[in-house]
Amino acid sequence: MNVRPPSDPLITNPTLAVLGFKRQLIYHLHFWAFVAIAPLILIQWQEEHRLLSVLLILFCLNALLVIACLRFRDTYFLQGRLFPLLAMVAAAYSTSINGHTGLYWAYPAATALFFLLPLGEAIVSNLVFLTVMAVVSYHTFPESEFWRIAVSLGLTCVFAMVFAWLVGKLQQELTRLATTDPLTGCLNRSQLADILNSQIQMRERYERVSSLVLLDLDHFKTLNDRWGHQTGDRVLKELAVRLRKRLRDTDQLFRIGGEEFMLVLPETRERDADTLAQQLLTSISSQPFLDDIKVTASASVAEVSQGETWSVWLNRADQALYQAKSQGRNQVVDARRPSQGGSGTPTSTPG
Ligand SMILES: Nc1nc2c(ncn2[C@@H]2O[C@H](COP(=O)(O)OP(=O)(O)OP(=O)(O)O)[C@@H](O)[C@H]2O)c(=O)[nH]1
After folding, report:
1. Which of 106, 207, 323, 324 has the lowest CB atom count within 10 Å?
2. Signal sequence span per UniProt (predicted)?
3. Region 189-346: CATH code
């Protein structure tokens, strides 16, 4: 898991907000576990439980390393795998030699697993842990107590699992809500910079070329005025469906303004993006929306160029779209390259 911390306290990217939450959780679990466990090293050492003391020393060292890596290197040391392993082994061993005083630690250990490991891994680890604890308890405590321990520890695991599962689902749902446009289901602007930047990196590192298409409905204000805002909304919804039908799984569709959409097309040269844009404009103009509303759109195409930033790339596409509008609409204009002077290249107008 990448746990790069958000440097800006006013985060606008939902993915970064979730990473920030996970980072805090990992940080606090390790910090407070360290505070609670460190004194026990001395106590167990004085009681001549050397092996347990060594396990606790390893646990505390791991906690310190995780905290230091998060703080100074923005990485998650060994992906948090050592905490659950050491906590489970130490709790089981401590129960076998200390009885109840060791058993108490099994409860926080079982709970912590669900917040540190991916859910599937946490469930498997906890099943192993429960089995080990059941065997140890069976040999350490009277039978009546063994059942109480098995059921109460099992119930603790179920509660923690349900809670962690729901928090995970809530995170996913909130991220989805924050990254998509509720009307059309397209991506909104929140991840625009990240996604364009990732295409730029593909260009810089692997010479893989992506293009973007901006598409804007023509005279949408007139449509709204004539048919009403709700009908306008339904047209936008239908437009998103038509666009999505024509795209590949790897393409991404954004709604970046009222009636303006952006398509990010990985591994696509300007020529092919232009062909696609032409086909999209034809599919919009040739078939009326909601059965009898005729609509046209204008589009621009821009292939990413060496060394440009996402905002320059988008700005080139914007200029070309402006040109398509000013030249009469219902047409595609290819953006001029940074090295080229003059204006963009108009391509054919759909029939
Ligand atoms: N129905 C609906 N209308 C919207 C929404 N968002 C923005 N609009 C409207 O879209 C219209 C955009 O108008 P303009 O920017 O003038 O663009 P246009 O009329 O399409 O003109 P050109 O782009 O120059 O062809 C405005 O009337 C906005 O109110 C929306 O979510 N639903």
Report:
1. 207
2. none
3. 3.30.70.270
